[in-house]
């Protein structure tokens, strides 16, 4: 990575802390690292049917009484999709109207088999494959909350998309997530599976908290994750390259 960075004209970090880490590792690259957070734009499919989605997930209850927690991730170990499964299943046995649905592509075939086997024997947890982006955005908009349980993240697109769609976020307290989710302001950060369940229960029983998180999250992405600003940054970097090439 150091050699590649040495040859690169520019590098872009999502956050100030990422830039600082890179500068510490590669001091020679200090002047070529720019900060630009990930932009977000959501386009939910207007034809998406939530009841069909629930049926595909094997959930045959009235949508009115359900609380669906959506975990969006590729099936690979760093995303840790099984981290919350046992604790969530225990909660589901207490309250049968809560479900966690894991949605995402089968990235690691060996790990995917492990996930499928675990989910198959676990009550209250479902697994769906990759979805078209418009359908995924529509599913996010219809669910009760979006969950991120990754061991490591750069900047989670699913978290930003959930905020943009005015859906509350519960995220594992890791540096990448904590950079975009401020606890009890733009979302909720959990430290372990039991903490997740307690926070999820609180979110269910406190509509005022949900409303506040959603409003703050939407304002946060509008202010700091504009896709137009992201586009402008990269266009300016490319123009700088083009200018230097013509010299």
UniProtKB/TrEMBL annotation:
Coiled-coil stretches are none
A Pfam match is Glycos_transf_1
Does the record's keyword annotation contain Glycosyltransferase? yes
Glycosyl transferase family domain mapped to chain residues: 61-219
Q: One cellular component GO annotation, for this chain's record?
A: cytosol
Q: Name any one GO molecular function.
A: glycosyltransferase activity
Which InterPro entries does its entry note? Glyco_trans_1, Glycosyltransferase_G1
Query: Keywords, A to Z?
Result: Glycosyltransferase, Transferase
Which PANTHER family did the record assign?
A: GLYCOSYLTRANSFERASE 1 DOMAIN-CONTAINING PROTEIN 1 (PTHR46660:SF2), PTHR46660
The molecule here is called Glycosyltransferase 1 domain containing 1
* Species of origin: Ursus americanus (American black bear)
